[in-house]
Specification:
The chain is α+β, with helices and mostly antiparallel strands. It has helices at residues 14-21, 27-30, 110-131, and strands spanning 2-10, 36-42, 45-50, 55-64, 69-74, 81-92, 95-105.
């Protein structure tokens, strides 16, 4: 199984970032616009359309407000298994660290998925830092 871990620092408080991340049906508008072009909630899942045209059904496994951690799972297409998490860590002084971990099969998909995660993190950081002054501190 391939495991991908990415981290990035964000100039926004953990509370501000989590308020955006936990809005699971609006990631195309609030978290990763352009990287994700559409997102629709469907029961315990969200249907995500990525900017590259890939559509994925992501089952929301956990939304943990105390840990500021979102976990989702997806399968289909070229993936036989995909489980991922995004956790927001308070770094103090209005800074936070985002940790995105994905475990997937087949191993050969690690390169393409890592590329998508890298792009998603880049867009996430840019979007969150641009919006930080206007985000409510929850």
């Amino acid at each position: 199984m391939a495991s991908i871990r990415r981290e990035t620092q964000v100039a926004a408080s953990a509370a501000q970032v989590w308020e955006v991340v936990r809005d699971i049906g609006a990631i195309h508008r609030r978290l990763v616009p352009g990287f994700v072009t559409d997102c629709k909630l469907e029961g315990d899942a969200r249907i995500v359309t990525f900017g590259n045209g890939v559509v994925a059904r992501e089952v929301i496994v956990d939304l943990d407000d105390a840990a500021r951690r979102l976990v989702w799972s997806a399968s289909g297409g070229r993936l036989s298994h995909h489980n991922a998490s995004l956790q927001i860590v308070d770094e103090g002084d209005g800074q936070s660290r985002l940790v995105w971990i994905a475990d997937l099969l087949p191993h050969e998909m690690a390169g393409p998925i890592a590329g998508m995660i890298d792009e998603g993190m880049r867009v996430m950081k840019k979007t969150l830092e641009a919006a930080a002054p206007g985000l409510p501190a929850v």
